[in-house]
Amino acid sequence: MKTLAVAIAVAGLMAACGGGSSPDQPAGSIKVTMTEFAFDPSTINATTGPVVFYLVNAGSVGHDMVIRDSSGNKLAGSELVSAGDRFIFTIDNLPAGRYKIVCDQPGHADSGMKGDLTVT
C-alpha cells in the first residue's frame, strides 16, 4: 500500500514538472517550428481575438517567441521552449495589426530568428 502511495505521488510530481508527454497540437492553432535560427513559417496570418500558437522546438537550444508592435514594444511572449519540446502559447486578445515575431534569446533575432505576424 505504501509503495502505491509513493508511486502516485511521484507520478503527480512528474506531471506537474512537465515530466509527461509533450502536448498535442490543439485544433485551430498555428504551428510554428523553431530552429537555429528561424521560425517556420516566418510569415504568419491570424484573425483578431484569441490566437493559439503551437510552438515546436526542432533545434538544439532553447527558443521562445515574442510578439512586438511596430514601436518594438513587447506585447506577449512564450515561455522558453527547450530543445525537442513543444509549448502551447495563447494570446487572449490580439487586435488587428502588423507585428514582429522574434526569439528573445541573446543573439537569436540578430542571427535571423524573426518574422512577421499579420492579424486581420
How would you summarize what this structure contains?
By secondary structure, the protein is mainly β. The protein has one helix at residues 2-16; strands at residues 30-35, 38-40, 43-46, 49-57, 66-68, 74-77, 86-94, 97-102, 114-119. Strands 3-9-8-5-6 form a five-stranded mixed β-sheet, with no helix packed on it. A four-stranded mixed β-sheet has the order 2-1-4-7, with no helix packed on it.
Task: Itemize the secondary structure elements and their pairings.
Layout: H1 2-16, E1 30-35, E2 38-40, E3 43-46, E4 49-57, E5 66-68, E6 74-77, E7 86-94, E8 97-102, E9 114-119
Parallel strand pairs: 1-4, 3-9
Antiparallel strand pairs: 1-2, 4-7, 5-6, 5-8, 8-9
Which bin fits the share of residues in helices?
10-25%
Radius of gyration of CA atoms, rounded to a whole number: 17 Å
List the strand order in the largest sheet: 3-9-8-5-6
Average pLDDT rating? 87
User: Helical segment tally?
Assistant: 1
Order of helices and strands: HEEEEEEEEE
CA-based shape: globular
Q: How many strand segments?
A: 9
| Portion in strands | 35-45%
